[in-house]
Specification:
Structural class: alpha+beta
CATH superfamily of the largest domain: Ribonuclease Z/Hydroxyacylglutathione hydrolase-like
Strand order of the largest sheet: 1-2-3-4-5-6
Number of domains: 2
Shape: elongated
Number of strands: 13
Largest sheet: 6 strands, mixed
CATH architecture of the largest domain: 4-Layer Sandwich
Helix content: 25-40%
CATH topology of the largest domain: Metallo-beta-lactamase, Chain A
Length: 292
């Protein structure tokens, strides 16, 4: 994956009101590193996310604030994951008066409400609760640009992980309705030039996975001819058995991580009354009777 990633500078001005500061933590799941964003044009700025506490991030933030003759007035946290919040102590050393905001806040933090507006010179941010990646996940619209800070719901590369597929899809639809074709500033990876189009790709990808799970449950395989009744079909499947059919061209070392996404699909289908889970065997089956 790393060879496919576009290199990103540690600090980069992305627009007149947005500077991206990488958290200094590149990796398999963080891509080039967690993105943090300094927003605004005047002496008081808003910071979105704080990285995971790497010294390079604090040094870069300090340098940018000095160069811009600015301070962090408010910090908005997209969600609770450590690579987005662990830099808080470093931020408060640099800007002890900074107010910290987070949905479902921790100690010394203030809650973020749906539709809440945060503003500094040159920037107006509107908050939207978009659970899925995590239950507390928030995104922020930069109204002056028609751009969205997408957190970890939509990334600059690859697809995102989520805790609840049904909830996540609902949030993706809400995000797409709000941002349209505007820019996206993701929690990881490069800037999105058409966020609505990327969200549509995410929704279609999830629908494709759901269709594949249903096809294997129904026919026992992915490649099904029109009107075919497959002799390979069996009544019940474990998630890993489904993975071996759906991800047959993927290395086996990746099958276990892939099974987590398959389980999310099965749980969504169960919630819709389309699958049944046997908790004793751990197997899943279609709720409707198979066609003969």
């Amino acid at each position: 994956m790393a060879t496919q990633l576009v290199p990103l500078p540690e600090v980069e001005r992305l627009s007149a009101s947005v500077v991206r500061i990488l958290a200094g933590n590149p990796g398999k799941f963080t891509l080039q590193g967690t993105n943090t964003y300094l927003i605004g044009r005047g002496p008081q700025r808003i910071l979105i996310d704080t990285g995971e506490g790497k010294p390079s991030w604090a040094a870069n933030l300090k340098a940018v604030l000095t160069e811009e003759n600015a301070t962090v007035h408010q910090a908005l946290l997209t969600h609770w994951h450590h690579d987005h919040v662990n830099g808080l102590p470093d931020l408060l050393k640099l800007c002890p008066q900074a107010q910290i905001f987070k949905h479902q806040p921790g100690s010394d933090q203030t809650d973020i409400q749906e539709g809440q507006v945060f503003s500094v010179e040159g920037a107006t941010l509107t908050a939207f609760h978009t659970p899925g990646h995590t239950v507390d996940h928030m995104v922020f619209m930069l109204e002056e640009e028609g751009a969205m800070f997408t957190g970890d719901n939509v990334l600059g590369h690859g697809t995102a992980v989520f805790e609840s597929l049904k909830t996540y899809l609902s949030s993706l639809h809400r995000m797409r309705d709000r941002v349209s074709s505007g820019r996206g500033y993701p929690g990881h990876g490069a800037v999105l030039e058409n966020t609505g189009a990327r969200i549509t790709e995410y929704i279609q990808h999830r629908q494709q996975r759901e269709d594949e799970v249903l096809r294997v449950l129904r026919y026992g395989k992915l490649d099904v001819a029109e009107g075919e009744s497959s002799p390979e079909r069996k009544l019940e499947w474990t998630p890993i058995e489904l993975v071996k059919r759906i991800y047959r061209d993927v290395p086996e070392s990746l099958h276990l991580p892939a099974s987590h996404g398959v389980v999310q699909v099965l749980m969504k289908l169960e919630d819709e009354g389309r699958t049944i889970h046997d908790s004793d065997s751990g197997k899943w089956r279609l709720s409707e009777k198979p066609a003969l």
